[in-house]
Design brief:
Layout: E1 4-7, H1 8-13, H2 15-21, E2 25-29, E3 32-37, H3 45-66, H4 70-89
């Protein structure tokens, strides 16, 4: 796959489109290559959502085996965070 060459001004003016486009680009000024834009691999959104759903089911099962409610867990979490903030505030 050949890298497309585009001018610096065009790249700057159309940055959002190039970021979403997913193509590797050579950025040039006066015909000289200044650098390259190599996009990160796009994530599979559907796979991420399915992974989150699977994690939620697993968490629900864990909560059920512990015999506690979500409200009790949230209360405990909030207390842990409160104590951590106080320690941080007091420099401990």
């Amino acid at each position: 796959m050949e890298t497309e060459k585009i001018g610096m001004r065009e790249f700057r003016e159309n940055l959002a489109g190039y970021l979403e486009g997913g193509r590797a680009l050579a950025i040039t000024r006066h015909g000289e290559t200044l650098g390259f834009f190599i996009p990160a691999q796009k994530r599979n959104r559907k796979a991420e959502v399915e992974a989150m759903r699977a994690a939620a089911k697993e968490l629900d099962a864990m909560i059920a085996t512990w015999g506690v409610t979500e409200d009790e867990l949230m209360g405990e979490y909030k207390e842990i965070r409160r104590v951590a903030r106080e320690k941080k505030r007091n420099g401990k």
